[in-house]
Amino acid sequence: MNEGKRFRIRLLAAWLAMCAGTAAESAFGQATLPPLVRTTVQIDSHLLGDNLDASDLERVKQELAEYAAKKLPKPGFEFMRWKSLQTQPDLPSVAEFRILIKQKSSGGIPRLLLEYQAFVEGKPADLSGLPVQPIYDGPAPSVHSADRLIEDVKSLRLDKDLANDANRAELATAFAKHIPLSKRVIVEQGKPDIIVPVDFDSLQASDQSHLYVEFTAQPDQKPAESGSMRLRPVTKIVTGAFQGAVNCRVYSFDFRNMSVAQPGGDDPSVTSILAILAPTSMKSAQVFMEEFKVRSGSLFQNP
Amino acid sequence: MAEPSPDETLKKHLTLRYRINAVLFAVLMVALTFWFQKHLQVYLTQIALIGGTMTLWALWELLQSWLKWGWGEDGEDTAKTLLGSARSTEYVVLGGVVLAFLWLTTSSLYLNYESSAGGGTEYRVEVKSGGVQFLPPLVFSSSQEVAGKPYFLRLRSRELELRIVEPRGFLALNKTLEPGARLNIKVPGDFQPKKFHVLRLVPGPNLFSNLPQYDDYPTVFYEVKISRPSGADAKTFRDLRRQSLYVGAASDDIRWLRQEQLQGESLQDLLQLLHDEKVPSAAITQNLPSLETNPAVLSTFEFVTGDRIVVEVIRKKSDGRKTIASETLDLRDGDPSIRPVLLEIPEEGAQ
């Protein structure tokens, strides 16, 4: 077999594979919703455990978790869904933001402390930048009133902590940026765009946002290797199998010796990138929100 | 020697009977006077004017006036006529029997106010016998110094409990009112001052943190049970909040004792206790206002020197009750009237 024939066979194979991959993606279904983060509250305190009924304790946990789920998204984390554990409990989640109310003796006074913990896919995330803080300056005014405890935790800690810019930056760095939006990126045949199969409307990301993708690919006979790229969410896909998903442009691309910044147009690297990202090549991928800019106005602001 | 004539003999008999009757009458009058003086005079006059020498002088004058009744020839004849007859002897004897009966069956109870003793200006006294009111409540002051009454025809003795109900601080006085006797009680001199052993139970920092606020509506309650080591005389305070709890006497006595404390004494004693018990200063600062306000009082048996008192803290939840702390306190003679005691539960694992 001569070289020209071999090359044509390869191209045909790549095209077939791309078609097959596209067909397979179609079989997966449409765009998924952004990742779900569960907000939970745990209470590790004799003071509260001994003096509140189980039903009251449960109410404290539930109300605070729901409050945190409402407070956390804005600003900056709208690209994820936040729900308390009790809200639609059957929905799968990828991460947990935990509020831990615990007790420690300080200066001879048992004190209630509040600690934030985060878990991504079951593994703890480092939130040491959010220090453990007492809920009250002294002893708790009441460990017998669930209502008072709820209000105090909201006003004395959550309202302050979750609105604090430094805390939110810490949350973004240590937690939110490590939550995978998707574990797939999809390339469509003959198109320069890269699809992240996450619901565009729910993601709320403008084209100024950056998605960071870590992937492992094996576009040829060489061993699979890891690479990364940054994407800009550009448009909402309005038709086709991935209707409603996010259509992205490559902002930067690194794989093996290939390092491309903002490829586009007739850039020959685009073809190579698409080949690397082809379903037959991709072994794994994780898409993260590296920099989030909330989209405002029309959903189709960036056609 | 010539025999006396019948007139002379009769005259001698009359004279002898007159003398005997006169002596009997005099004795009867003296006895009557003493009886009257003992049981009735104060009741009738309500003031004890006559006493000692004055009384004897008055008695003498009284007797003299009776015996001098119609003094002189006519008077002597009249007295002889009255006391010299056989019937008069019967009357005198009958009077003697009646007086003897009255003497033996009359008792009286009188209470006298002593303004110089006790320091109070007004005293309210209750007198009970067998738990039943024996006299109406009595009030003594400078304008009402004596109270009491005689009791006639009483054949049995009565056990009395006299109690100064106001001001407080006196032990009850137990007396027996026997037939023929008079009880004379000095108010307040005959009443011994009471030695209180009230305990002020002060929640330690950990217990304090567990207790409900004064205005909470808790579902978990903290009880304090007071008893003797045998479990006898148990009393339970059902809902302890962030406050001090006073026990060890009747609630009215405890409240009176608190009022009697000097200005700032309560706070000073509390601070001393917290300092002695090495309670951290941060906790003192935080807890002190609650411990000084809204004190709770539990009416218990009266603690006395030598008593051993068991104090238990019980947590009461919907699923049951559990004793989370227990302490036995010894009451010593040198204890102050109100002794503050720290009541604490283990810091962890007390559930």
Task: List its traits.
heterodimer; A: 303 residues; alpha+beta; 2 domains; 7-stranded antiparallel beta sheet; 6-stranded mixed beta sheet; 7 helices; 29% helix; disordered C terminus; B: 351 residues; Immunoglobulin-like; 4-stranded antiparallel beta sheet; 4-stranded mixed beta sheet; 8 helices; 36% helix; 29% strand
Class by alpha and beta content of chain A? alpha+beta
How many separate domains make up the residues of chain A? 2
The stretches of 5 or more residues of chain A where confidence is low (pLDDT under 50) are 13-28, 298-303
Which range does the strand content of chain B fall in? Answer: 25-35%
- How many strands of chain B? 15
Number of domains of chain B: 3
Report on the architecture of this protein:
The complex is a heterodimer of chains A (303) and B (351). Chain A has seven helices and 13 strands. Chain A has 303 residues and is an alpha+beta fold. Chain A folds into two domains: 14-33 and 181-291, no CATH class; 36-177. In chain A, the strands form two sheets. In chain A, strands 7, 8, 9, 10, 11, 12 and 13 form a seven-stranded antiparallel β-sheet that branches. In chain A, strands 1, 2, 3, 4, 5 and 6 form a six-stranded mixed β-sheet that branches. The longest helix of chain A has 26 residues, at 3-28. In chain B, the strands form four sheets. In chain B, strands 3-2-5-6 form a four-stranded antiparallel β-sheet, with no helix packed on it. In chain B, a hairpin with a 7-residue loop joins β9 (221-227) and β10 (235-237). Chain B has helices spanning 6-45, 53-67, 73-84, 86-105, 205-210, 251-260, 265-276, 281-292; strands at 107-113, 123-129, 132-140, 146-151, 158-166, 173-177, 182-187, 198-203, 221-227, 235-237, 245-249, 296-299, 308-317, 320-330, 338-343. Chain B has three domains: 6-103; 108-187, Immunoglobulin-like (Sandwich), CATH 2.60.40; 198-343, no CATH class. In chain B, α1 packs across α3 and α1 packs parallel to α4 (86-105). The A-B interface holds A 46-47, 49-53, 56, 105, 107-110, 138-145 and B 205-206, 208-210, 212-213, 216-220, 279-283, 285-287, 315, 317-318, 347-351.
